[in-house]
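Work Package 4 report. The design task specified in the project plan requires that, given a folded chain encoded as C-alpha cells, an amino acid be chosen for each position. We show below one input record used in the internal validation round.
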C-alpha cells in the first residue's frame, strides 16, 4: 500500500533549505485571495517564527479558490502540500524518478508550469506532482528523463507565471494518474474527498516535516 511505503522511507527533501519550517493555515476567509497580500502575510509569519519556509494545506478547506472559475462552486479542499518559499528556489527530486509529463497549465488559480515524476519503488508505481514552477523549469525537460534523488529539476515561479499565487510549491503524491498527463486535480469537492484521500495521500508522509 502506498501510504505504508511512504511511511517506511527516510525523510526526503524537495527544497534545498536548511533550518526550521513553520506551519501555515490558509483555511480562513481573509485576504489570501490576493497574491501580494499573501506575500506580506507569509513574510510576516516567517519573520515572527524564525522559519526558513512555511508548509501546510493538506485537506485544508480554502475560500481563496472562489477567485477562479476553474474550481466552480464546490471544489475548495486542497489535496496537496504547499511549501512557501521565494521565487527561484530550486526544487529537488525527493526520490529517484523519471519525467512522466509536464505542461504549462495557464490561468488564474491554475498550476502554471507543472512537472510530474513517476517513481517505482518496492514493486509500487506512483507519481509526484510539482505545481507553480517557473516557465524556465520546462525548457530542458524530456519525457523519460531520469531525475536522481536530490537533483534540482525545476524552480519556484513568480506569481506572474504560477497562476497568480504567492511563490510556493504545490507537492502532491498520486497513486493513479488515470491517464492524465501534465495535470491532475489539486483541489476537490467534499463529495469526492474519500476518493482523493485514497489516491492522493499526505505528501508529508514522504517529507516528514515537523512544522509548528
Amino acid at each position: 500500500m502506498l501510504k505504508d511505503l511512504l511511511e517506511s522511507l527516510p525523510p526526503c527533501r524537495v527544497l534545498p533549505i536548511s533550518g526550521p519550517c513553520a506551519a501555515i493555515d490558509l483555511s480562513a476567509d481573509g485576504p489570501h485571495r490576493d497574491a501580494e497580500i499573501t506575500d506580506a502575510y507569509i513574510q510576516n509569519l516567517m519573520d515572527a517564527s524564525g522559519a526558513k519556509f512555511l508548509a501546510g494545506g493538506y485537506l485544508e478547506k480554502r475560500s481563496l479558490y472562489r477567485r477562479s472559475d476553474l474550481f466552480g462552486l464546490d471544489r475548495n479542499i486542497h489535496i496537496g502540500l504547499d511549501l512557501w518559499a521565494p521565487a527561484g528556489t530550486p526544487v529537488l527530486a525527493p526520490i529517484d524518478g523519471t519525467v512522466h509529463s509536464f505542461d504549462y497549465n495557464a490561468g488564474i488559480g491554475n498550476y502554471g508550469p507543472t512537472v510530474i515524476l513517476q517513481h517505482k519503488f518496492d514493486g509500487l508505481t506512483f507519481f509526484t506532482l510539482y505545481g507553480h514552477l517557473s516557465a524556465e523549469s520546462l525548457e530542458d525537460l524530456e519525457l523519460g528523463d531520469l531525475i536522481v534523488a536530490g537533483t534540482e529539476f525545476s524552480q519556484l515561479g513568480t506569481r506572474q507565471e504560477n497562476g497568480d499565487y504567492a511563490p510556493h510549491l504545490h507537492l502532491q503524491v498520486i497513486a493513479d494518474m488515470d491517464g492524465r498527463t501534465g495535470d491532475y486535480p489539486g483541489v476537490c469537492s467534499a463529495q469526492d474527498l474519500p476518493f482523493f484521500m485514497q489516491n492522493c495521500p499526505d505528501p508529508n508522509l514522504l517529507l516528514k516535516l515537523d512544522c509548528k
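Residues 8 and 92 are 20 Å apart (CA to CA). Validation will be extended to a larger panel in the next phase.
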